[in-house]
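Q: what does this look like with zinc ion bound?
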Amino acid sequence: MTGAGASRRGSGGTSPARERADRYWCEWALLDAGAGPAAEPGVLVEVSGGLITSVARGTRPPDGAERLRGLTVAGFADAHSHAFHRALRGRTGEDGGSFWTWRERMYEVAGRLDPDSYHRLARGVYAEMALAGITCVGEFHYLHHAPAGTPYSDPNAMGRALIAAAAEAGIRITLLDTCYLAGGLGTDGAYAPLEGIQVRFGDGGAEAWAERAAALRAAGAHARVGAAAHSVRAVPPADLARIARTAREAGWAAAHIHLSEQPAENAACLAAHGCTPAQLLDRTGFLAALRPTLVHATHLTSDDAALVRGTGAGVCLCPTTERDLADGLPELDRLAGAPLSLGSDGHSTVDMFEEARSAEAHERLRTGRRGTLPAHRLLEAVHTGGHAALGWAAAGDPPAGRIAPGARADLVSLAVDGVRMAGFDPRRAADALVWAATAADVRHVMAGGRWIVRDGVHALIPDAAARLDAAIREVAP
Ligand SMILES: [Zn+2]
């Protein structure tokens, strides 16, 4: 394969030997998707200490700089992941049923994992992400305890397994430690107790959840910890209010919640509480206090959407999962202006190009119109939008998701000389990325100044496919 053409310079991490800047000359680079769709020619990028130290446009390749042929962009943030769902890919398609019957298969996998097997599985999934250009993941984590709900000797053993897996795959992680207290919401307003596999998810109450999760705060330079509530189905209103207060005081990196993924959630919430799930988040202070990232937001009313826009809460779409689970279609035009991020969620595919493409493609099918979300805006969602949703854009943080001086040195280099990208027009680079590229076009990936993928091979886990295969076979239904 061409499109690589790279020497092996600059393959190190953060060792003292790398004080001198490494220099990369990009044939084409899309520096900041938010600024527009065009790629710049001849971009010289200098990297030192994990950060981009300088960016020069319109240069000729200087001696001593590694040439990155094709198109280089910033690393992607995958804002919503359940790593263990990857074990179901290619194994539920002919089952029929619904979201709720799929969930039973998902629970089978959840029932088989322990900290060691989850570590192996997540390491493989995060390696797959790295190979797709993802350099930061938001892991929505609720599989906390041993079967029967017994805490492990380290009550955060599962969360630490995920954080270690991300480190070994070379990507950053925001562990969104998730409060999950109830097995479901009845139309009578009663919350069902956790049962079966679900008892592994529960801490018994919001205070106990916060106390356990707080022990994960010092998680390493590649990791941050955020707060999540699973959904209004799984966390009663009083506990949502407690989480809002706790998380605000604790200063979590980010806050997330699943919202209105299925019509049944809306129906139960309306019957039980007389309001929609979004309105319940408003009543409990969850929206205003945390300005959370709302995952899915598929079945919002127009009033819900106005509420979301008014509070500054973000929305994370997971289009390939939402179609896999027959969730329905969000009305994206109602959400214009809300901060947007994208996630591969259940990992029916791990390809942020496909997530971006599908968000707009589904909207086209729904509305009969093209162009609700232009390509460069969709890329913004996987670049700066995703990092903001995962808490990597706080005051004082180096920017992430842009190729700019001072930004994190996260680079994704794609071949443009394969059949899929043949005809590549750099003036419309964003269009080509969203509507032509796939994860298979990614050749090299740098995360925090370290190469983690070279020539389409994971540099830290060269046998990533075999390891992921073995890890899935351990636990798959
Ligand atoms: Zn989810």
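DSSP finds 14 helices and 18 strands in the chain. Confidence is low (pLDDT under 50) at residues 1-18.
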